[in-house]
Design a protein that fits this description.
- With 133 residues, the chain is mainly α.
- It has a single domain, classed as Metalloproteases ("zincins"), catalytic domain (Zincin-like), CATH 3.30.2010.
- Helices cover 44% and strands 10% of the residues.
- The protein has a 3-stranded mixed beta sheet with strand order 1-3-2, covered by helices on one side.
- Helix 1 packs across helix 2 and helix 2 crosses helix 4.
- The chain is globular, with a radius of gyration of 14 Å.
- 29% of the residues are buried.
Length: 133
């Protein structure tokens, strides 16, 4: 798994493209450093993306973005949410597993005291491992 070195503006371009495709309109989208998550979507429609997404492969970062934008349609992770993920990103489970791998690597690096390792992670149930909202 290798990085495509995305930048913040490219993340926002991906957001814009998927907003049009999904016909959703977030209240606000921001990219910022997040300590424990890759992303989140608030009940007010604010989408926050971790700046660490720039270090992931484009396809994995895109999965995170689509995941959060879909929360503007379906707020939970039930059957409808997963069906929409499958409809728009048929390979979502593979991308989800890659994200878990990156999260686990970040966790391992942080626990070893690697100060350069800042990949967000969150312990908890399977969905929370990679820190998606």
């Amino acid at each position: 798994m290798e990085s495509n070195d995305l930048n913040k503006s490219e993340l926002l371009e991906i957001c814009d493209r998927w907003q049009r495709k999904l016909k959703v309109r977030p209240n606000k989208i921001q990219v910022r450093k997040m300590r424990n998550k890759w992303s989140s979507c608030s009940s007010k429609g604010n989408v926050t993306l971790s700046s660490e997404l720039t270090g992931l492969p484009r396809e994995v970062a895109e999965y995170v973005i689509v995941h959060e934008l879909l929360h503007l349609i379906v707020p939970n992770h039930g059957k409808t949410f997963k069906a929409l993920l499958a409809a728009y990103l048929p390979q979502w489970e593979e991308l989800h597993n890659q994200l878990i791998t990156y999260s686990t690597l970040g966790l391992a690096q942080n626990s070893l005291g690697n100060k350069n390792a800042s990949h967000p992670f969150r312990s908890g149930h399977a969905h929370e491992v990679e820190g998606l909202g």
